[in-house]
Model the fold of this input.
Amino acid sequence: MSLKKKIVALLSVATLTLMVGCSSSESNEQEVTNSNEQEVVVATSVAVTEILDELGVEVSGVPTTSYELPENTKEATKVGSPMNPDLEIIKSLNPTCVVSVDTLGADFEKQFTENNIPSMFVNLSTVDGLKETITTLGEKFNKEDKAKEIIKELEDKEKELTLTNKENKEKVLVLFGAPGSVMVSTDSSYVGNLVKIAGGNNIFESDSSSFIQVNMEEIIKRNPDKILIMTHAVPEEAKKTVEEEFAKSTWQQLDAIKNNKVYFLENGYFGMSANLKAIEALDKLGDILYE
Done:
């Protein structure tokens, strides 16, 4: 099984470059008709739901998730998990736009296009991507002023951080734990991006992959000083999987484990996608890196 398919399989039970804006295979005439109707917006991820709600956009469909969603979306229809949305439920809502994260955009785009579902995909893999997404959604739904207000708040908080001019030489390993599997998170992942912004030294970099298979020989060679772990899907089961992995003798050779420098990150702040808690997440990360 390919790594990409493995990630999809792992996250199918989970709550989980801006692409072309909402479009479908419908005619231009149909698109014009839709523009005169009330917007029916569906969000397929928790982070997207939170952003739309903060912008003041009414959301008719939300992901099925164990995570808490905004109060305003309490009556919204559940449309399935982020990695396995129920297309029939989504179609029944007659959406004018379905907003998804572009992590697996090509897979989603094909399904939505084949089902004539107007969709757009947003980049939430970095803090900069988060800001771009807020701007783009603000323009799409005529909430430009609110978008600017949210971004200003994020940037004001960012300026308050004392991490900007710091650099931590300690070697950091970032792991992604899900029930039954552990992978390495590179600097291309969202948490990896946070580590980079905070001045941390992630021992695994990649221009193309957010997650890579664990290579114990290489990890032992690089010998991290600290290990940061993000858990997903069912957090307690994911944590148990990581702890069982760490019990193996190969992991016990690492300085981070010998010195008890292993940190399980809070789910609400550290996940697959950038969210509105990004600045608070950086603050928490700073406490770990510069303790």
